[in-house]
């Protein structure tokens, strides 16, 4: 597993890098050689705004066989943020692996295999202009798979290509805790 630790508005000391690396390496127990995490990016951020009560932020992106898991944690202490991020990421990995195992067991029982979802994410910070754009390949998937991916990423919405129609759709989290689906009109 390749682990990259970088900093924004903070110099990454050897102790911080080692601590973050150790926390992320503990996740390798969930993977065998065939289904291992290929790359992990850990970004340590110090928010310079004095009004922010929790300025120490850790954002982690874990790339696993075409799937992306993300965790973000904020606190007044960078080590506490790393611990919180590690806990969040471990919960996501457990959920991800549990779903994979459920699929594999379903295949053994003679059910048809479902294609593994690929993360489709577009993050744009919009104030008066677009300051960030991301592009991802989109594999066709069902709305249910997209909702699972949305849950894994803990985002408000998820853009994907429908396996049924080939159209671009959006799954989003509603305030009542359920999910909504936006499809183009025909």
Please specify the SSE layout and strand pairing.
Layout: E1 2-8, H1 14-25, E2 37-46, E3 56-64, E4 67-75, H2 78-108, E5 140-141, H3 143-153, E6 157-162, E7 168-173, E8 179-182
Parallel strand pairs: 1-2, 5-6
Antiparallel strand pairs: 2-3, 3-4, 6-7, 7-8
Description of the structure:
The protein is an alpha/beta fold and 186 residues long. The protein folds into two domains: 2-108, 2-Layer Sandwich (Double Stranded RNA Binding Domain), CATH 3.30.160.100; 120-186, Sigma 54 modulation/S30EA ribosomal protein, C-terminal domain (SHC Adaptor Protein). 29% of the residues lie in helices and 28% in strands. It contains three helices and eight strands. The strands form two sheets. The protein has a four-stranded mixed beta sheet, with helices on one face. A four-stranded mixed beta sheet has the order 5-6-7-8, with helices on one face. Strand 5 (140-141), helix 3 (143-153) and strand 6 (157-162) form a beta-alpha-beta unit.
Short recap of the structure:
This protein has 186 residues and is of the alpha/beta class. Helix content is 29%, strand content 28%.
Looking across the biggest beta sheet, what order are the strands in?
1-2-3-4
Low-confidence stretches: 112-127
Q: What is the CATH class designation of the largest domain?
A: Alpha Beta
Q: What is the tally of beta strands?
A: 8
Rg over C-alpha atoms, rounded to the nearest angstrom: 18 Å
**Describe the biggest sheet?**
4 strands, mixed
Please report the number of helical segments: 3
Helix/strand class: alpha/beta
